[in-house]
Design goal:
single chain; about 160 residues; mainly alpha; globular
Amino acid sequence: MSAPDVVYCMLTVLFVAAAIHGLRQGLLRQESGWRSRVGHLLHAAMALAMAAMPWSWGRALPLVPQTAFFVAAALWFCSTVVSHRRGSRGTTTARSMQAAAGMAAMAWMSHSVASSSHGGHTVRQAEYSGPQAGGSAAGDLITVVLALYLLICSLCR
């Protein structure tokens, strides 16, 4: 087994564990409301998508439906900011916006990979070099803003 395969296996185990946790929280936790349950299930779906990414069969999954799903998930978390009434308003808003940014980053990543496909041959994610792979200035800006926001959120927790 090569070194990348070992890393892929570790990432898969990590993301499958996160997906199981999200499923458990979304399906079995009785004290949380339905909005919280949907949020946990969306996070579980994102973790499963991330677990599949390193593998060749994961890179073969259709990218346009992934993009649409993660855009819808990002919009879901944005809508929870408006409709949430419990807890501290600032904390609820911050958590919802962090989740929305994570889903938006997944949508942007799948959109970027889908738009970088040429002649029906999708660019393998392992070979995708990020914003420099035919991206525009606006695309580069979106990538940087999402990355910085997620980095700041992770450092402030």
